[in-house]
Every structure is written in C-alpha cells, then in structure tokens.
C-alpha cells in the first residue's frame, strides 16, 4: 500500500482493474443513503402523528433539518482538508450519525413514557427532546461526510486510472439512487406495521431502527476496508484560501477608499499585495459562477417540499392501487424512479432532438427551463389540492354546532330546529347530512313521527359535531344526543368506526379484535381507528351470537355502524357516513412529480456541469459548497414564506410558491442573458504563460549582474 507520493506506482489490491477498497466505499454509500432517505421519508408523518404537531410546525421542523443537513458539509470539508483527513472524518462523523439514528429510533418508542398504558406517551416533551438531539446528530453526520466519501473514493485511483475513476463515480451515484429508492419503498411499509409492548401503534421504532442498523453496517463495512485505503494527508482547504483572499481584498479596498488611490480593474485586484495572480484569477471565475447561484435557492424551496407538503397532501388521498396499497410517504418513490428513467432519456433523446431543431439550448437556458417546470409542478399540485378540498369535511367553528339526525324508527321523522331555523325530514333507517347552527340562535328541537311529537332536551357543545338519534317505540318517541368528538379527518388514512345499538337489549360488539364493550339500547360507542378493508363484526347478547363482514372501508372515512338485530346468526347492520372517504386518487400526484423530476434533470444535473465547466478544477470544492448552500437556503425560504404568508388554504400556498419561482426565473434569465461563457483552461494556460515570462524576467537581471561581475 502506497501512502506517500514518492514511492513507485501504488500496488493496491485490485479486482477487474479497480482497487478493492472502492467496493467497501460503494457499499458504505448505499447503506448510508438508505439510512438517510429511509429516515427522512417517514419524518414528517412522525412529527404529525406521533409528536402530534400540526402541518405547519411539522413542515417547519422538517425543512430546518434538511437545511442543517446541507449546511454541515462545509464543516465536514474543512475538518477533513485542514485537520483529520477524509478517512478519520468519515469514521468520526459516521459514529455521530449512527448514534443520532439510534436516538431517533428510541425517541419513537411509545412505551418509553407510557406508564399508564393508554396508548399515548405521558411525557411528550421527552420524545421531542430526544428527536431534536437525534436530528442534530444526524445532520452533523450526514452533512459532515457528504463531501468526503466521494472525494475519498476518487483518491483510491492512480493518475493513470482516469477511465476507472469515471466509471467508479457512475457506480457511486447509482448506489445513491438505489439506496434512496429502496429505502423510500421499505421504510413506509415498516412504519405501517403495528408494534408495541403494552399497546399497538404505528411502528416508527422499526422505521427508524432499520436505517439506524444500516448506518451501523455502513460504518462497520467502511472500517473493515481500512487497511486497503490510500489515505491522503490533509493539505489545507481551498475554501479557506478563497475566503481569506476575498476578505483581504475587501479590507484592503476599504483602507484605500480615498480618491488619491487609483482604481483597479476588479475589486479582487486589491488582494494582489498579499495573494498571487493565479489565486485571484481563479477566485474571480468562482465568484462569477457563485453570483449566478443567488436566485437558485428558490428552486430548492419548491423541490424539497416533496417530503413535507406533498406527503401531507397524500395523506388526504386514496392510495388504493388495486392489489397494492400505497402509503402516503411512499409516493416520494416516484421521484427516484423517474430520475433513473429520465436522465438517460433526456441525454440520449431530448437534447439531441432540440439540437437538430437548431435551438441553442445552453446550460443557463436549461436551468431557467428547470425553474419554470418546477413552478408548473406546483400549479399542478394546487389544482390537485383544489379537488381534495372539495372532498374535505367542514367542521364547526367557535359559536357553532353541527347536528346530524339518524332515524332509527320504522317511519319517517320530521325534525324542526327552533325558532324556525330549519326543517328536515329523515326517512326510516336513514340519516341527514350535518347541519350547521349558531349555538346562540338554536333554542330547541322538536321531533314528529306522524301525529306523535316530542321535544328532546338540548345538549349542545360549542364548536363540536353531534348526532341526534331518534326512534318511535310504540306510542312514544325516544331521542338521544350522541357526542361525535371528531374535529378532523382521521389520521394516516385510517377509518374511524363507532357502533350504535338499535336493539331493545344490550349487545357486546367487537370488530377485527377491537372490543367496544356492552352497548345499552340506543347508546353509541366511542370511535376506534381501523385500516382500509373489510372487517369481521361480532355481536353477542344474552341469548344470541351473530357476526357479519363489514363493508369495505376506504381511506380517511368515519362511519356510525347501526346494529339493528340478529337474523339466523347474521348481524343486521346499516352504515351512516359521518366523514366521506378520500376520493381523490394518489395517482393524480404523478403529473406533479413527473414535471418536478423533469425540472430536476434539466436544473440540477446541468447546474453542476455548468459550474464545473466555468471554474478551475482545483475550485470544484468551493462550487460544491456553494451548490449545497443553495439547497440549505432554499429550505430556509420555505420556513420564511410558509410562516409569513398566513394563508389558510393550502392550494393558495402552492400558487404563491409557483409565482415566486416564476419571478425568480425571470430574474435569473436576465442575469443569464448578460453572462459571458469562459474557458477556464484558456485562462489557466494564459496564467502559465504569464508566470513563465515573469520567471524569465526574474532570471535576466541575474544574468546581467553576473556579466558585470566578470568584466
């Protein structure tokens, strides 16, 4: 193994012409990306359903975390290049990363603080604190090793292995996409399982635990290959040099701000007293590209909402794809699947076709088109949201009450809401829709079955839904107020089911293993959550035992199941829809994902290629840091815009983001119009020529002095 630059060409163990060490690096990257994207896929739903944060707070914390993940790579690069070296940095921060993933898995264990075993944590603050610690450690880990692993892989090759190095990077990025794709499919399935010691819950510990295990595997695999790695010693970070050069130029210009000092061609030329001409010229090229980066964060502000707003949008949609049931967080897999398809199609088909049409589709034009497409994707998301909003139930506000009437009797019931607010006729064994009343105006309710009339007492709760169950029994009218206790759509696409006993005797009811207890006549159980599908309902009275398979429940509905009696061991049940199921199919999200993926292909891939083509090779790390910084700032923009907009409608927020990106796209197009493309190689060659001339000049005076001394 060669560890210094003075020895003979390195004799590393190889396989098919590749250093064996790179196989450990590729496996490490696959496991690490599986760990990161798997955890991130379920993160926003963990915030919403486990920590019980609302949509806005869940979105804010999610984007804060992502922003932190893209800020820390700068720290990782500085540590690796200036202090520890790439190998030690990867190992050290991978340990931090693994601990962070383990802490996240522990934070999601419901039984950790559920001492009364009621199915909910008693001290949610403990879980929040652990989650925050875990996320900070993960952000430090994943961000810190991000700039090191690919560069460390490149270090394993000798100078004469350029072809193998290029192919390695292709395999390396394939492993990233494979880890992302597989984890985004698997972890939502793990989350959908039920687990727990005392009470069964969505299995977030498993969804976070498997990524934690994969990160531990990534660390172990990487350490196993330690003896085979070529470890380059830290040689200083060019970002530090560039920053110092810029800082000195600004400081020096400020010192010489008086008019008596002649102006210089470029403000960076004020650094020439301390820094060489080459570094100043390279820094100028880098700053020219970084200036174009200024509008780019707005693209990432929209792009990264796939994991937050779009996932939350999917929770209100129908995920039934026939034999397959798609979880809301699994819709994110559409992006990596389309990326794998679209990148070769765009490179091999779309770009050549555009070129044949005589259109000069320059890199900056591609980036502008990518921004426009991302804006279009959010318009598509807004149109889907408008359709979803039409299906969402309306709940009462403060000062209002919502009332539904269920007629359990054998004749039609006429119900009057006094004084003269509303009259409604409900047919036998049917129910009315929910009706909204101001609690201050509704004084009484009267119920009539034919000539029989009754005035049940009022039992209104402000800002809540209630059901009035009415029935004619002989010559009397029975009425019962039922408190619904539902204030939102059922969580996670579940269905809320309760039972109402319409028999003249008590009945014990259970469904799919969940016991609702003994229900007296004309009383209702509490709602319980059930997943999609048909369930077995069992009813037992003192003398009868009967059962029936329920109707097939969809996603996000609520039903009152009325038990009317038993007939030949078959339970007679009718269904009253309290909240309609999700009817807008998740497939309607595919167009917005497709448009956004097209945007990513022409924006992200082109952006990096353009950056590298416009700056010196030794400045790639500076541009990579700048590129990652645009992602971080983009996520911060989401926090600012979503927090400041105060829009009550989600579709309006989508339109706002689309409009903002459209404005930024126009600004970028103007900046791109005035941009002049350069060839860094030509500039470098010119610098080399200038340095040779300068060296020659420096030698000539020495010769003159030598000649004079001989005379």
UniProtKB/TrEMBL annotation:
Kindly state which reaction or reactions the protein catalyses.
L-methionyl-L-phenylalanyl-L-methionine(out) + H(+)(out) = L-methionyl-L-phenylalanyl-L-methionine(in) + H(+)(in); glycyl-L-leucine(out) + H(+)(out) = glycyl-L-leucine(in) + H(+)(in); L-alanyl-L-prolylglycine(out) + H(+)(out) = L-alanyl-L-prolylglycine(in) + H(+)(in); an L-amino acid tripeptide(out) + H(+)(out) = an L-amino acid tripeptide(in) + H(+)(in)
List, alphabetically, the PROSITE patterns matched: PTR2_1, PTR2_2
Q: Which CDD domains match?
A: MFS_SLC15A1 (cd17412)
Q: Name one GO biological process term.
A: protein transport
Pfam families from the xrefs?
PTR2 (PF00854)
Which stretches does the entry tag as region Disordered?
A: 689-711
Q: Where is the composition biased (Basic and acidic residues)?
A: 690-711
The way it spans or sits in the membrane comes to: Multi-pass membrane protein
Ranges that cross the membrane: 60-78, 90-109, 124-145, 166-186, 206-229, 285-303, 337-354, 366-386, 590-610, 622-642, 654-675
Location in or out of the cell: Apical cell membrane; Membrane
Q: Which domain of life is it from?
A: Eukaryota
**Keywords, sorted A to Z:** Cell membrane, Glycoprotein, Membrane, Peptide transport, Protein transport, Symport, Transmembrane, Transmembrane helix, Transport
Task: Report the GO molecular function annotations.
Answer: oligopeptide transmembrane transporter activity; symporter activity
Listed GO CC annotations = apical plasma membrane
State how it assembles. Interacts (via extracellular domain region) with trypsin.
Task: Please state what the protein is called.
Answer: Solute carrier family 15 member 1
Instruction: Tell me what organism the protein belongs to.
Output: Crypturellus undulatus
Q: Which gene encodes it?
A: Slc15a1
